[in-house]
Prior knowledge:
This protein has 262 residues and is mostly helical. It has seven helices and two strands; from the N terminus they run H-H-H-H-E-H-H-H-E. It is rod-shaped. The model has no long low-confidence stretch (mean pLDDT 79).
Amino acid sequence: ERLLMAPDLETTLGAVREAAGEAQRAVETIIAAGKAALAFIPGDFGNDLAAGLDRLRRTFDEAMEDLATLVAQAGSPDTLRAAGVVWAAEIGGTVSRLSGLATLNGVRADDYWSGVAADAYRNTLPAQQSALTMIKSAGDEIDATLNALASAIIRFWFAVAVTVVGFAVAVASAVATASTGVGAPVGVTIAVAAVVATAVAVNEAVTDLATITTDIRDQAAGLQRRLANDTAFPAGRWPRSTTPISGDGSISDGDDTDWHLK
């Protein structure tokens, strides 16, 4: 029930830890019951049970170590989404507002001034608007990429949680069988099968996550190539006028670069 209502990663991880703890207790109970049964199960049957107990201990410990490693590197969807908001809203929103101003209709200088310098300034507006639009587009794409990765992490952990909860239920059901003494070999076999099935399911979830992150990495590489394109930023710089105005923005020194009131 807690898992089905899990609204965030931390709750899902809590369900994973809780289920893993329940499985740990169940496996320890099965192993204890199996060791007690060895006292009266003779010959090959006893040898098979001992081998089964060893396998259960080994496979379970390995599975729990792998799970602990994953939990220690669970990721942070909230951090990814927060970074996406910065790119889309704070950075993207700011440049979007500036883009609306970098137009003939958005500036007032061209309404009051004329001359070569004024024309040079006016002619930079389309290039600057293009640069601003490019930044906004890149910010939106970064936001989408980060959110896709965040969602992939949550889906991964939900799949792991469902698997571990199922595993805990399976080994718990084997406890009653193993505790009868004569049922110890069967209980151990059920528990080993549950461990193996859980390990396979978790590995499949890891593979699915790896596939998604590879796709996202490809998207990021494509974005990096577009960011390296200097079309919107000639020579890697903010667009500036190429009109030779001799760096002169004066008003009244008499040369042809002067600004003039309209």
